[in-house]
TrEMBL record:
It holds the Pfam family PilW. This is PilW family protein. It comes from Variovorax terrae. The keyword Transmembrane applies. GO terms for biological process: type IV pilus assembly.
Length: 326
């Protein structure tokens, strides 16, 4: 557009708007900024999911540690005080009707105070005559997880022998009373199974109730080995000198000689919680996957995770046996 000024000079008007090239360059720049923002958001969201899942796995691992610590400390627990009261004239003063039952002597626990099964699943309800109906090397559907159980005496209220006073609880959190008969001795049994949602989970079974109760979800495998004092006679020093799995302990009848347990597990998070996928996990620690520098033949020492986008972590801890099992 041509304009004529008052002075008579001619000046071309300033151009308004954008050329096609400038518009395309602007669109490219905006697109790059948008893509960068989306990439940053996606990365941040993935990091958040991983961090959140990692925290949840750590919390679950701590809870499982508390469960096993409590159970292991209770193994072989014997309330000799209450038994002594039942044998004396003091029992009626506590409103305990001794005539209703036969007191269980503390020595009844024996080798059943602590026990386990290797690569197994719990398959039947507990009874007084057996530790639990399960078999070594029979549980292949739960990633060769192990079964662990403890027996112990409960503690009753002074006003009612049939009601626990809360000082001794089972793995379901229920108070356990002093046993009226041998079949009432407290039991906490841990196993890995599939929950109602299809997720693997740590489960609990207690005395008198064969129904499994879920404790912690996302437990893909549970591995347990036992530190045993294999010394005998004058050389026995109550110090563990060998790690054995449950089948090896059973074969050698060494359950009363267990001094410590090592619990290992693999926990998994929700789908999409992993940024990278591990190729192998060692529930008990990599050092337990080898014997004298050679790979161990023990099934379950190495866990190969599927590539399904879930965050997985291995946790392991040692727990000393507090009570005398012999």
């Amino acid at each position: 557009m041509i304009r004529r000024l008052a002075s008579g000079r001619v000046r071309q008007a300033l151009q308004t708007g954008l050329t096609l090239v400038e518009l395309l360059v602007s669109l490219v720049i905006i697109s790059l900024i948008t893509i960068a923002a989306l990439a940053l958001y996606t990365t941040s969201a993935g990091t958040y999911r991983t961090t959140d899942a990692n925290q949840a796995l750590q919390d679950n691992a701590r809870f499982i540690f508390e469960l096993f610590s409590q159970a292991t400390r209770q193994a072989g627990l014997q309330d000799t005080y209450q038994y002594a009261q039942l044998q004396t004239g003091l029992a009626p003063s506590y409103n305990w009707d001794v005539a209703r039952f036969t007191p269980v002597p503390p020595s009844l626990l024996g080798h059943r105070a602590l026990f386990g099964y290797n690569n197994a699943k719990a398959v039947a309800s507990p009874s007084a005559g057996t530790d639990y109906s399960a078999d070594d090397n029979s549980g292949t559907t739960n990633n060769n997880s192990d079964v662990f159980g403890v027996r112990y005496f409960g503690s009753s209220r002074q006003t009612d022998i049939t009601t626990g006073d809360g000082s001794v609880i089972n793995c379901q959190g229920t108070p356990v009373p002093y046993p009226l008969t041998a079949s009432d001795i407290g039991l906490s049994l841990f196993t890995v199974g599939t929950g109602s949602t299809g997720e693997p989970e740590l489960q609990c079974i207690v005395q008198g109730n064969p129904q499994v109760r879920p404790l912690v979800g996302g437990v893909e495998t549970l591995q347990i080995v036992y530190a045993v004092d294999t010394d005998t006679g004058a050389t026995a020093d109550n110090s563990p000198n060998r790690w054995l799995n449950a089948a090896q302990v059973s074969t050698a009848a060494l359950w009363p000689k267990v001094r410590m347990i090592r619990v290992g597990m693999v926990l998994r998070g929700a789908p999409g919680s992993a940024e990278t996928q591990a190729t192998a996990l060692y529930p008990l620690g990599e050092e337990f996957s080898k014997i004298s520098g050679s790979p161990s033949t023990e099934t379950g020492m190495v866990f190969t995770p599927p590539n399904d986008g879930r965050l997985r972590r291995a946790f392991a801890f040692n727990i000393a046996v507090r009570n005398n099992l012999e």
